[in-house]
Amino acid sequence: MTFLRRQLPLLITLVSGLLFAAQYYVPHPSSELMLTSVTKWLQIIGGFALILGVTSLFHIHAVKIRRKEPGWGYSFILYAGMVGTIVIGLRDGGKETIDGAATAFGWIYTFMMVPLQGTMFAILAFFIASAAYRSFRARSREAAVLLIAAVIVMMGRVPLGEYLIPASGDVTQWILNVLNASVRRAILIGISLGAVALSLKIIFGVERAYLGGGKE
Amino acid sequence: MPFEVILGAWVATGLTLFILTFLYQDNPLFKLAEHLYVGVSVGYAIVKTYDTVVIRLIYEPMVKQGDWSLLIPLAIGALMLTRYAPRAAWMSRIAFAFVVGVGSGLAIPRVISSYILKQIEDTIRPLLTLAADGGATFTYDLLNPASNLNAVVLLVGVVSVLFYFFFSVEHTGPGQAVARTGILFLMVAFGAAFGYTVMARMSLLIGRLTDLIEYAQPQYERATWWLLALTVATLIVFRVRRKGTEPPP
Amino acid sequence: MTFAERMLSIDRRIIFLVIGLCTLIPLLYPVGLAIKVSPEVRSVYDYIESLPEDSVFLLSLDFDPASKPELYPQAVSLLRHAFKKNLRVIGMTLWLPGTGMANEVISRVAREEGKESGKDYVFLGWSPGGSSVIINMGQDLYKAFPTDYNNQPTSELPVLKGVQNLRDVSYVISLAAGTTGIETWYVFGKDKYKFELGGGCTGVIAPGLYPLLRSGQINGLIGGLRGAAEYEVLIGRKGKAVAGMDAQSATHFAIILLVILCNVFYLLIRTSTRAAEQR
Question: How large is the ipTM?
Fold first, then answer.
């Protein structure tokens, strides 16, 4: 039984990992067919993972309402919104438009979901301004370099900045294409080396945290 | 303008203004909009997932076109859901093992090729360019990112930043100079990132305010004006009621 | 409390008001300053210009409603350009919350340009899996998307004639707001299937994509609302992006001023503290 619980998952990871790493170098039609089929399976399994995610949200708020914890009225609104959207969505077959005309589901998407999500992220503009005013101080030489680069880029990326100081546009382009690109490249190489090392550790069973669930 | 569009404009404007009230103070209007946002988003995700995964990816190919090999991913997906049953949760490990194994295997050669080899290849550019007549020249146009001078700066930047993050070696002597160069490059890049983040956040606000301005037009029955008045009045009522329940000093 | 200390601890709602006004006033009373086009946006434009009629152009709208102000104008301009050049357009998305928006923008712009679904363009919709979808499309487009968003079988659509997989696509552009975006399209797509790849992205992730731009892994990059405005200028159809540029200028200068003021006050406090210590 321990084999099924402990060894089998690690064996599956090892075999599937090595198989698909090797597949990249094997252009034979059967290897390509295997890739096509398995990536199709991953899409279906990925859908199930989504179901996992939304189910837990459902559960948390159902408990809150049942126990009538403080703020359960808001949980009720959340539920009403969720259930209402699901009922209308399933009735409209999951489509926002049918033959070019908007459905009720499409109405909910366009006039509720889009403005709500858009505004939630739009208020960040105010917070970034307030945070910049409170804490963007040149306490050291390095911080001063950061500040000057930020000011140049902010000026160079707007028409008013380029109108007042034409060189700011060119300097911004140089900063982005040379200085910024070199740093980002170094970070990208570093992170990728780490990601490859982690993937190898997972395949060879050194790293097992992803398994989770159940007693060993 | 059709009625449902005007109604939609009013609902959208109202919800936008409710969320914007958070800038003044956390209040019931904001909490209402916030919870509605989560509810509608999750509901939308559930409907789309059901329609795409269950109907289009599983039911139609399997039942209508007879592709029964899809029973395998269906079984693996079902195993994943056993995570919720404490006694059967160990079965979900098999599903996760398969998904993570395949994902890691697919990623390794592709990441090495795209992010490591290709990026290093572009960093090690020739120091001299071949001119049309066969002779070698050193181009130092700062405004052209592909010039030789910029290639040298790029190389210095990549190496010094990579060295800065190499913590297994002490940054002393010449190493310290390299690490400090790396830090300066990093600060410039972070400054550029901050500038771009400001640009992005402001753009999002510009987008929302553009919509609010549009919905203030007569064809939408001046939704923005009426709802702005309603929101401000509601906030005043909340403030008065809160002041009323506070104990006297 | 000194003046500098009082100014630094000012109620943040005053700053909110300043930003709000700096955004609102230029939107109501625009000035219309000239917009210079950057080389990375011009590369995307020039490449689409160079594509012969009937080439296959895939636009992947990998963003959700939160990034609509920056990426929706980019999508509109790119689609207008592609339809003007009579390219065969394939639309899709890798982000679930963006499906409705992606469907709306493609249908609307196609209708305005007089294009027909199935004949001139197709919207494939969304499929879970991100990188798996890209690999699946690279192997066999019809296995990845057996039907389009309107449940029409893709194998029977005239617009997809001769397209077996991603190798038959001339140009792919991913409009991305984060992970599962341009990098995913490169690593799991262009690396093996060798199509040309361009990118459009939000301002937040734009600086991180410059290494790929420099190495030629992507042939162009449209960054944020500014990039969208530049593209609108190039195709000669000014829209929401250009209209937002004056507000962008005002808010940037407001932030620069706030940062300078913050440092001036901080310096004042530091010098007065040092002077007090010396006494």
Answer: 0.93
SS3 B248: coil
Query: What is the pLDDT at residue B62?
Result: 82
Residues 45-74 (B) with a CB less than 8 A from some CB of A: 45-55, 57-58, 69-70, 72-74
Q: Where are the beta strands (DSSP E) in chain B?
A: 129-130, 136-137
**Neighbouring chains to A with at least 3 Cβ pairs closer than 8 Å:** B, C
Cα B217 to chain center, whole Å? 33
C25 in reach of chain A (CB within 8 A): no
Instruction: Report CB contact under 8 Å: A181, C214.
Output: yes
* Surface of C (10-39) touching B: CB under 8 A: 13, 16, 19, 23-24, 27-28
The whole-number pLDDT of residue A213 equals: 53
Report which residue type is found at A141.
Answer: R
Residue type for A92, please?
D
B207 and C69 in contact by Cβ < 8 A? Answer: yes
Tell me the two tokens of residue C258: 């706030």
Alpha-carbon gap, residue C160 to C122, rounded angstroms:
8
Answer positive or negative: Cα dihedral of A73, A79, A82, A87. negative
Share of chain A above pLDDT 90, in %: 67
Q: What gap in Å lies between CA B46 and CA B35, rounded to an integer?
A: 17
Please compute the mean of the pLDDT values over residues B39-52 and round it to a whole number. Answer: 89
Neighbours of chain B (3+ CB pairs under 8 A): A, C
8 Å CB contact between C139 and A39: yes
Q: What is the pLDDT of residues A155-210, one digit of tens each?
A: 999 999 999 999 999 999 999 999 999 999 999 999 999 999 999 999 999 988 87
List all residues 6 or more positions away from A196 whose beta carbon is below 8 Å from its beta carbon: B107, B108, B111, B112, B116
Per-residue pLDDT of C120-131, as tens digits, reads 999 999 999 899
Give pLDDT tens digits for A70-128.
777 888 898 899 999 999 999 998 899 887 788 999 999 999 999 999 999 999 999 99
